[in-house]
């Protein structure tokens, strides 16, 4: 959900004066609608499927399977809320883990309600009522003001041509996001300066060393990540560094290193 929130902020930042953002949503759950609410207008086809049922969280436990094949897991833990080993050591969720996940879920859901209700000019109670009723029909969504209109994608193109002054018999100039992401800075008038800021990205679970069984591109390995940081620190061309980490956690010692 954090990545989704970042995407929503990016949409908001793109809403400069004189510009507009449209969302076309044929299939929509909570994350997709959260992102779409950053747009000026939301459109869907008549056959669109919306499943706004609220958020849930679940956990899996393997202790029963391990018992059946004669394996007894031994897990070290510190504190009641350290639940990473529960998947192996328990058959059901502990009270502490349930408390922790419930608090996390409530926080995410409250934020979702706040942002959606604010974007649509409705109260949180109204949005929650629609979710509890189970909204499936797009005509109901339009009636409640959750989407702007019900049209097909070719009608979106026609509408954009009319708004932008493009003749209907001409192609609408469009740029695929993959191509847009490869645009060089100097082609849009952004000149490079002498001082650079390094951006170091890392995602996945954290481990001390790379396992022979792991995919080479998955997770954060302490020894490799440390090497990247040292390379940037010792380089004369970088004046600063931004480290971006997207991780559920992992090895405590590796994280400290």
From TrEMBL:
<feature type="domain" description="Peptidase S49">
    <location>
        <begin position="21"/>
        <end position="166"/>
    </location>
</feature>
<dbReference type="InterPro" id="IPR002142">
    <property type="entry name" value="Peptidase_S49"/>
</dbReference>
<dbReference type="InterPro" id="IPR029045">
    <property type="entry name" value="ClpP/crotonase-like_dom_sf"/>
</dbReference>
<keyword id="KW-0645">Protease</keyword>
<dbReference type="GO" id="GO:0008236">
    <property type="term" value="F:serine-type peptidase activity"/>
</dbReference>
<dbReference type="GO" id="GO:0006508">
    <property type="term" value="P:proteolysis"/>
</dbReference>
<dbReference type="InterPro" id="IPR047217">
    <property type="entry name" value="S49_SppA_67K_type_N"/>
</dbReference>
<protein>
    <recommendedName>
        <fullName>Peptidase S49 domain-containing protein</fullName>
    </recommendedName>
</protein>
<keyword id="KW-0378">Hydrolase</keyword>
<dbReference type="Pfam" id="PF01343">
    <property type="entry name" value="Peptidase_S49"/>
</dbReference>
<keyword id="KW-0720">Serine protease</keyword>
<comment type="similarity">
    <text>Belongs to the peptidase S49 family.</text>
</comment>
């Amino acid at each position: 959900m954090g990545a989704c929130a970042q995407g929503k902020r990016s949409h908001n930042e793109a809403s400069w004066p004189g510009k507009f953002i449209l969302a076309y949503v044929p299939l929509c759950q909570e994350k997709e609608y959260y992102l779409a609410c950053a747009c000026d207008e939301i459109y869907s086809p008549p056959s669109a499927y919306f499943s706004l049922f609220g958020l849930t969280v679940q956990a899996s436990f393997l202790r029963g399977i391990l018992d059946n094949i004669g394996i007894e897991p031994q897990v070290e833990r510190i504190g009641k809320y350290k639940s990473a080993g529960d998947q192996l050591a328990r058959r059901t969720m502990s009270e502490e883990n349930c408390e922790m996940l419930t608090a996390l879920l409530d926080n995410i859901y409250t934020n979702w309600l706040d942002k959606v209700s604010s974007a649509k000019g409705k109260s949180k109670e109204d949005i929650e009522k629609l979710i509890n009723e189970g909204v499936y029909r797009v005509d109901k969504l339009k009636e409640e003001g959750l989407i702007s209109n019900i049209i097909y994608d070719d009608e979106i193109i026609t509408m954009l041509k009319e708004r932008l002054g493009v003749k209907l018999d001409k192609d609408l100039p469009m740029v695929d996001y993959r191509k847009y992401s490869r645009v060089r800075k100097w082609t849009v008038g952004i000149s490079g300066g002498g001082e650079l800021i390094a951006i170091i990205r890392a995602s996945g679970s954290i481990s001390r060393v790379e396992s022979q069984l792991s995919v080479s591109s998955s997770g954060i390995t302490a020894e490799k990540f440390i090497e990247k940081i040292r390379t940037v620190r010792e380089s004369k061309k970088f004046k600063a560094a931004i480290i971006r980490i997207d991780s559920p956690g992992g090895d405590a010692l590796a994280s400290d290193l």
